[in-house]
Design goal:
- Helices cover about 75% and strands about 0% of the residues.
- By secondary structure, the chain is mainly α.
- The longest helix is centred in the first third of the chain and has 30 residues.
Length: about 375
């Protein structure tokens, strides 16, 4: 085997490269399936719709407008990134935090209530969102550690409990004529996250705040904790085999609870850096849990369960989700982008099988080469 062939095979066997390749295949196949659905619904506008979804803010011919809406997409992607980190942090420790959506919701309730009811500054509101969401996540961890209650069941229940409790709480700070909470911009400007000049980079988009760099910094910190610290090693060891971890002297119950506390805090931070920009107001009549937390599952697995990969996958998921608003509403609904995201999420489950297939293919190819070389030597 030549040096170039060896380098090529080592690249194909690299786990990170396989994950990236598998994720790209998921995206391509998901977009293709979405395009087929568009063709079935209305073949005349299918090409324009898929292009609009992919273009998103580039839909605007003006560079100023495009840059402004790029900022808005990044703001939403930063919140999605935090929900993604919440899911993958728990996943690395062997837990499936499907409750990131509910933890995100209670984080919204905490930061908005502190900001609108008590006129607290932004840093207090942000801490409140993190703490309350961490407590809700910790509750699931507590039930798992001491009563062996499956975290998926407890998280799903807490999602709905959190939603209706937040609706009840924020109904006290809503506008009198609408079901929406009072805007922070006119009620308590001190609760808005500072811009520090970042808004000027995106055509004076006032919603672009320190939340953007904060989300990226948190992704890097999560990677460092999981991959480069003793604490992260203990958490992952507990997830792999809690009995073995206990035998080695690790406090497995504490690690499970602490994992869910951190996961909940990350989701709560996402809620804070999104709603404390003033970009949206909470509707107290909501009957469904916001999709941000559930989309975090997609971003986590599309990014190969890597905190660094989640940065890019979160942006992509938010990019096509926001792009759905630009499709022709006379032909399609804006949720068509959510459908495409759902296809991609579904296909992400096959990344592991793709990696197994690729390794098996490479092994068989090497066996054939070895057999051929052996025959040549005997001849």
């Amino acid at each position: 085997m030549s040096n170039s062939q060896k380098k090529k095979e080592s690249l194909l066997r690299n786990s990170g490269f396989q994950t990236i390749l598998g994720s790209l295949l998921c995206i391509i196949i998901g977009l293709l399936v979405g395009y087929i659905v568009l063709l079935i619904i209305n073949p005349h506008g299918a090409s324009g719709a898929i292009i609009a979804i992919l273009k998103n803010f580039l839909y605007y011919p003006s560079a100023v407008a495009a840059k402004k809406y790029l900022g808005t997409t990044l703001v939403k992607a930063s919140a999605l990134l935090m929900c993604s980190l919440s899911v993958l942090f728990a996943w690395k420790v062997g837990l499936f935090n499907i409750g990131a959506a509910g933890q995100y919701v209670v984080g919204v309730g905490a930061c908005l209530y502190c900001g609108l009811k008590f006129n607290m500054p932004w840093y207090v509101c942000l801490v409140a969102a993190i703490v309350v969401a961490a407590l809700v996540g910790g509750l699931s961890g507590l039930l798992k550690a001491y009563f062996n209650v499956n975290e998926v069941i407890s998280c799903i229940m807490l999602n709905w409990i959190g939603l209706y409790c937040v609706n009840l709480l924020l109904s006290k700070v809503k506008e009198t004529s609408t079901p929406y909470t009072k805007p922070l911009s006119s009620t308590n400007k001190s609760a808005l996250l500072p811009n520090l000049g970042l808004d000027k980079l995106f055509s004076n988009n006032e919603f672009v705040t320190i939340g953007l760099p904060l989300a990226v910094i948190m992704a890097i910190l999560v990677w460092i904790v999981l991959e480069k610290t003793k604490f992260g090693y203990e958490l992952k060891a507990t997830g792999m085999n809690k009995n073995a971890a206990k035998y080695c002297g690790m406090r497995e119950k504490r690690n499970i609870i602490l994992t869910m506390v951190i996961a909940g805090g990350l989701a709560g931070l996402g809620a804070g850096i999104f709603y404390l920009t003033g970009i949206e107001q909470w509707m107290v009549q909501q009957t469904t849990v916001p999709s941000m937390g559930f989309n975090g599952i997609a971003a986590a697995f599309l990014g190969g369960s890597s905190p660094i990969g989640a940065i890019f996958s979160s942006y992509f998921i938010q990019h096509i989700t926001s792009g759905g608003t630009y499709v022709d509403k006379t032909m399609y609904c804006s949720q068509i982008s959510d459908l495409i995201s759902a296809f991609i999420i579904y296909l992400c489950g096959f990344v592991l099988f793709f990696k197994m297939w690729l390794n098996r293919y490479l092994n068989k190819r090497n066996e054939k080469r070895a057999a051929k070389t052996q025959k040549g030597g005997e001849a």
